[in-house]
Design goal:
The chain has 333 residues and is mainly β. The relative contact order is 0.15. Strand 2 and strand 3 form a beta hairpin. The termini are far apart. It folds into 2 domains: 245 residues, no CATH class; 85 residues. The strands form 2 sheets. The chain has a 17-stranded antiparallel β-sheet that branches. It is 6% helix and 51% strand. It contains 3 helices and 25 strands.
């Protein structure tokens, strides 16, 4: 008997703000894997791409991607992402559960599909369900659909949770298929009217959420795994839209005056006087804003302080405005 897991929890849709229109995917285009070609494509889209978080007392930013010199970086990583695949303006990358995205999007994705535009990007995530041999589920699981063709993909599919040593701690079972092609689901799935269709190796489910909004999810079946994706939710095709800001490279260096030090690196900008629980930095033109956000119980943002820095055109000095309005001139060291 497998360990009981509330299957319906695997289909919980987290409360996030999604873009109303999905990206302009061009499935008819051939897939490019050549690193040089992908790099040349990315060179047209230099920028740092971020989401604006709104809360009661203001808003703050979270940078999800940086594109620079033909490379793509996740969050504030200094090492570029690898395993990139390009089709049209759609780029797919293996993020291997990079937690910098989970900080914002409440998901630890395995694969990200990014669509690039001149002043923004859109992305959606996919998760990988690992596979083990089929094992009869407990009495809380029932057969909810059968496709005989699915017998070729029989198995228990799960998302692993790892311990601090990198060993699997918990197998969170998501979908179970036996050799007769029966799909087993937790009893609660029938309460939301979940239905399934099959087209080749692509299994698709559809149901209505508590607000009677349609939810469509797909499961791409492979020999030893399933690639899972939310396709449609909240009455919209599912994707996140990120705004574009400039890169830091033209301003690299340390700017200081007395005890105040502003440090600009390729992946981040910081000020030594910021003491908040979370820091973010955005630059557009010569204007840099470093935000420090304070959280209640390490969860709810309650206060934001902004540090405003305006660089001179020759990048040798900067005017710094403290959160209290005091202005100080900083000199590049």
């Amino acid at each position: 008997m497998i360990k009981k897991f509330l299957l319906i929890s695997a289909f919980i849709i987290f409360a996030v703000s999604c873009s109303g229109n999905n990206s302009n995917q061009t499935s008819s285009n051939s897939i490019i894997t050549n690193a040089s070609e992908i790099s040349n494509f990315l060179k047209k889209y230099d920028g740092r791409y971020y989401h604006q978080h709104e809360f009661t007392n203001g808003s703050y930013t979270h940078v999800a991607f940086r594109i620079e010199n033909g490379n793509m970086y996740i969050g504030e990583d200094k090492t570029p992402a690898s395993e990139l695949y390009l089709s049209g303006n759609s780029l797919e990358l293996n993020v291997n559960g990079n937690t910098q995205l989970s900080n914002t999007y409440n998901q630890i994705y395995s694969i990200i599909e990014v669509n690039l535009f001149d002043d923004h990007l859109k992305f959606s995530g996919k998760n990988i369900f690992d596979k083990e041999d089929f094992n009869i589920p407990d009495e809380d699981y029932i057969v909810i659909k059968q496709f005989k063709e699915l017998g070729n993909y029989a198995g228990n599919y799960y998302i692993p949770t790892y311990d601090s040593n990198g060993q699997i701690k918990v197998k969170n079972y998501t979908i179970l298929i036996d050799k007769e092609g029966n799909i087993y689901g937790y009893k609660g799935m029938t309460n939301v009217g979940m239905t399934f269709t099959l087209n080749g190796n692509m299994l698709q489910s559809e149901h209505n959420d508590k607000n009677n909004e349609k939810v469509i999810m797909s499961y791409e079946l492979e020999k030893d795994r399933i690639i899972y994706q939310i396709n449609f939710i909240y009455g919209k095709e599912y994707s996140y839209e990120l705004m574009k800001s400039d890169i830091f490279t033209p301003y690299l260096g340390t700017y200081s005056s007395g005890d105040i030090i502003v440090k600009v690196e390729e992946n981040n900008a910081s000020i030594n006087t910021a003491k908040g629980d979370y820091h973010s930095s955005i630059i557009n033109g010569n204007d840099l804003t470093i935000s420090e956000i304070f959280f209640e119980n390490n969860e709810n943002p309650i206060e934001i302080k902004e540090h405003k820095i305006i660089f001179s055109d020759d990048k040798t000095k900067a005017s710094y405005t403290e959160p209290d309005g005091t202005t100080i001139e900083l000199i590049k060291q």
